Amino acid sequence: xxxxxxxxxxxxxxxxxxxxxVTLIVIAIAAPLIAxxxxxxxxxxxxxxxxxxxHLLGLDDLGRDVFSRxxxxxxxxxxxxxxxxxxxxxxxxxxxxxxxxxxxxxxTLIMRLTDIxxxxxxxxxxxxxxxxxxxxxxxxxxxxxxxxWVGYARLVRGQVLKVREMEYVTAAKALGAKSPRVIVLxxxxxVINPVIxxxxxxxxxxxxxxxxxxxxxxxxxxxxxxxxxxLTSGRRYLGLANHLAIFPxxxxxxxxxxxxxxxxxxxxxxxxxxxxxMD
Amino acid sequence: xxxxIIRRLLQMVPITLGILTLxxxxxxxxxxxxxxxxxxxxxxxxxIVAVRKALGLDEPLWKQYVHYLSRxxxxxxxxxxxxxxxxxxxxxxRYPATIQLAFGAMFVALLxxxxxxxxxxxxxxxxxxxxxxxxxxxxxxxxxxxxxPLLIIAFAINHEWFPVSGRDxxxxxxxxxxxxxxxxxxxxxxxxxxVSVAEELGQLYVTTAIAKGATRTKAIFxxxxxxxxxxxxxxxxxxxxxxxxGAIITEQIFSWPGLGRLLIQGISTRDxxxxxxSILVIALTYxxxxxxxxxxxxxxxxxxxxE
Lengths: 279, 307
What we know:
Chain A has 279 residues and is an all-alpha fold. Helices cover 73% and strands 0% of the residues of chain A.
């Protein structure tokens, strides 16, 4: 194991975050093997049953196994999380690189657009978009990507502005390299570390936002198990069947906390200066 | 300063226009024929025509936009599909509830973050500091839509100290929603106060004060705290904006009759004028608060040259 990896693992936040995140991913991938029951099979005669040996986390308002639904819910969370981070970072990195590298009118246009999007509270815009497009998994991904790319664009632009003036970039240009080649081969590798940190924290943010939208009834529609939607229906049975609200919420919190720990640990390990960049 | 204010106000013009345009376009983003969607599944063709006419959707886009802006300039936010009442009146009624909640949350956050952040900074790297930092980490990761129900279970159902929902019992009703919404802010502020106070404690003027015979407590409260508060105030003001959006979720948890709940109700009943107006008012308040917090920044610290 190399020195950097060892140092990373010594960082408590990072190790704890890595453990939680890996667990989350394994659960999502192996959901059918881990879940003891079909998450959609109802047994209305046993609705709202509290946790027992047979049903570890109890049964929900339609008599479905809560544990199995949480296990399958990990798939929804991660699918939204990874899709949003992928789309948002792709758009953000491209636009940020273009704005920073070429400057001029492209820079002005892109930056003014980010100004407007940043002036608009993110979750509100997501709610507005899902409200008009209709609630669905894909629209949640679309809405969260629409607000998500801004951070990457500003981060990458700032870094590119710095790197652009470096001698090795001038050298590459002097040797006749074209702009796309300079950007992809020489500029981007130097901005990738903070982007990775932002993506990790962005994954946590996307999972939390998906849960929030689903909680508001604007996300994934039933019967697909989503942690946020499970919490909404659980809220109706507070006092009667508290386990319906407690367990899905705990799942959201552990997933988000794991990714936040991981991101925090990465900041400390890669470069503490990144903390400022993430704001 | 005056110059700065004018320049910032001018900067707000394109942003405000951008937000107005965004909110205006929302209705046109509805997939398919917006009028048909709004009229509902079982609408007769004449209903759809009526909706189209009522919303002015039959006019050219630029005309719709001009009408929209001129109506807004007159304070007309349209009429609710559901109640046929003026949306502006409804918003006026709900607005104070949201602001009250935001201030409640801020109060709770300060109540927790101040002592915790200070103790954390003074006894850095001690067990109490670790507890405070752990709290801060939990606080930022805990989703409000989980924390809220947990509070309801503990303090409204198991112990009937506070009402489960609504705004009918005065201050008592305000407690749980404020704590729910204030938690994340408390966590952010605790971190902020800790770092800020610790930084000032390391400054030479604090050492000087102690060398001249000031007690440690005096050095902290008389000298360090004043300077440490500058970044805290800014963050606090900036965060007020995000409290407004946080209210959307908290109001839903506690059936709090504010703007956020109005928005979500509007969405579920497809009451688009109400949805557009709620979004517009929340967004405009948000940028106004951010503008004011920028100004505050210059007021609390004259050293800061407002560029």
